[in-house]
């Protein structure tokens, strides 16, 4: 008999979510394992704040558990989950009245790891890299929210265009347009930027 850890390892997301619907906590733990990092990356791409990302990620999983009885095995599970995530994000934005305060990309520990991982890093290279990251994130922050959301889901998380359309409840061509506009605006904002 399979242990609790690997019981669902080879099962599809839909199958695992059906078990979650029936109250199976091990199945829920498996979905959490599969999607925690993806949701963290999504929320971080939207907020650039680790603490906010963790809070929103936890809220998303909490809602998934609370509303598990409503799940029907139709459509893609990532689209279903990211629809929860999108709603959590939009609610957070309404509560904070669209006030944004973003923190730096990495904590001190992560910066130390990055510096240690670069064998011949010089202080000027590290500073240039940090400045490049800041310029990219500043450009991303300037995008309208719907374009930024599409860009983060597609280019950072690899969510399909069809799944994004389902999440955002809009036509596929609208998603494509938002993605194209986001890329054009980012290219324009970063034009002339030298990458070290």
Provide the descriptors you would attach to this structure in a database record:
globular; mainly alpha; 0% strand; Rna Polymerase Sigma Factor, Chain: A; 196 residues; 69% helix; Arc Repressor Mutant, subunit A
Mean pLDDT: 80
CATH superfamily of the largest domain: RNA polymerase sigma factor, region 2, helix turn helix motif
Beta-strand portion reads under 5%
**What class do helices, strands and sheet pairing give?**
mainly alpha
The number of distinct helices, counting runs of at least 4 residues, comes to 9
Low-confidence stretches: 98-118
| Apparent shape | globular
By CATH reckoning, the class of the largest domain would read: Mainly Alpha
Taken in chain order, the helices and strands follow as: HHHHHHHHH
- Secondary structure: number of strands: 0
> Mind telling me which CATH architecture of the largest domain this is?
Orthogonal Bundle
Q: Measured on Cα atoms, how large is the radius of gyration?
A: 19 Å
Indicate the CATH topology of the largest domain.
Rna Polymerase Sigma Factor, Chain: A
